[in-house]
Design brief:
By secondary structure, this protein is an alpha/beta fold. The chain has a single domain, classed as Aldolase class I (TIM Barrel), CATH 3.20.20.70. Helix content is 52%, strand content 17%. It has an eight-stranded parallel beta barrel, surrounded by seven helices. α4 links the parallel β3 and β4. α4 packs parallel to α5 and α6 packs parallel to α8. The chain is globular, with a radius of gyration of 19 Å. Bound molecules: SN-glycerol-3-phosphate. SN-glycerol-3-phosphate (G3P) binds next to α7. SN-glycerol-3-phosphate binds next to α7.
Length: 218
Amino acid sequence: MKFFVDTADLEEIRDLAASGLLDGVTTNPSLVAKTGQDFFEVVKEICKIVDGPVSAEVTATDHETMVKEGRKLAQLAKNIAVKVPLTKDGLRACRQLRDDGTMVNVTLCFSAAQAILAAKAGASFVSPFVGRLDDIGEDGMGLIDDICRIYEQYEHFETEVLVASIRHPIHVIEAAKMGAHVATVPPKVLRQLFQHPLTDKGLAAFLADWQKTGQSIL
Ligand code: G3P
């Protein structure tokens, strides 16, 4: 399973990339707005920090302008995945950008039917938003299960399931059990994955006992 971090915060990305556990980054217009920085500069910088796919989203809504924007974004770095919304125009733009050889992440997916269309449009990634479905009383992880099962039926579907809008570690664990290819995780949740109180307690006990021996390894 690949881990992407869902942020445009350069400090967070640098810190998490140093762990060696980061396979990519996803951004969206809201995350870029939060940084208060220039979109192109931020994206270029992220692409220098991380070798894996970096999603940068178009903001047009018609397919022609989406393709123009996507081509401009794709020129920023070789690891750009252009993000397009799951609309009729978005999928048309997806097909065109894929024909150019550009990675495309189809975002704002909320149904299995939409995910089938994204695969047929040749998306590199489809991003179902689990947290936002949970927020309205629907079953976010149930959707991931459905999409994974459907994609498994068709060998020619090359689209990876990128679980997005993750709110807590259980979303990540459930996604892994279902065989989702990627989880894009907010920095806070990514850090929570490392933590367990028994790890802290056990380490403190080991170190206290070691100190009693008066020895040192180095
Ligand atoms: O990047 C897309 C997605 O992960 C957004 O998540 O928390 O805004 O629903 P959220």
